[in-house]
Every structure is written in C-alpha cells, then in structure tokens.
Amino acid sequence: MCFFDWKSGHRFQKIDTIAQPGSLDAEQGVFCSTFDRTGLRLITGEADKTIKVWKQDEDATEETHPLDWKPTLQRVRY
C-alpha cells in the first residue's frame, strides 16, 4: 500500500501488508477502504478476512521516501 501527497505526487510512505497466518498467498488483496472520521487513518477490509487500520508516517520526508514513479506516454493505434 502506498500513500501519496495528491498535490505534489510525492509518495511519502509504502507499507507491505502481511496476510493473516494460515491464509493463502492469493488472499493478499484489499477489497474495500475508507477513512475514519478524522481523515487521518485508512481502514481496509482485506481478502484474508482481516480489517487493518493504517496511519501515516509523521516523520516521512522526500529524502526518506523518494518517488520512483516515472510515467510514460504510450500511443495506442488501432
């Protein structure tokens, strides 16, 4: 899961979710997500039947979490 600053496009945090012990590798998906009432935490319902609560890393900077995304424009001709 990645968290981005929507104004600048900077990815300030990347977290790998861990499947519930005993789950299959195919059960590492996110089915739904919503923010709590404060808007500071993300709540996800995952394929392994768990609910996880995520919060942002307050100490993240552009130096500690560099942006690796390089968009490419591809023309598709039909």
Describe the structure.
With 78 residues, the protein is mostly beta strands. The protein has a domain at 2-55. Helix content is 0%, strand content 31%. It has strands at residues 2-4, 11-14, 30-35, 41-46, 51-55. The strands form two sheets. Strands 3-4-5 form a three-stranded antiparallel beta sheet, with no helix packed on it. It is extended, with a radius of gyration of 16 Å. The model has no long low-confidence stretch (mean pLDDT 76).
Notable traits:
single chain; two-stranded antiparallel sheet; 78 residues; mainly beta
Write the layout of secondary structure elements.
Layout lengths: L1 E3 L6 E4 L15 E6 L5 E6 L4 E5 L23
Antiparallel strand pairs: 1-2, 3-4, 4-5
Radius of gyration: 16 Å
Helix content: under 10%
Number of strands: 5
Structural class, please?
A: mainly beta
Largest β-sheet summary: 3 strands, antiparallel
Q: Helix segment count?
A: 0
Strand order of the largest sheet: 3-4-5
Give the integer mean of the pLDDT values.
76
Low-confidence stretches: none
- Give the termini separation: 34 Å
Oligomer: single chain
In N-to-C order, the SSE pattern is EEEEE
Briefly say what this structure is:
With 78 residues, this protein is mainly β. It has strands spanning 2-4, 11-14, 30-35, 41-46, 51-55.
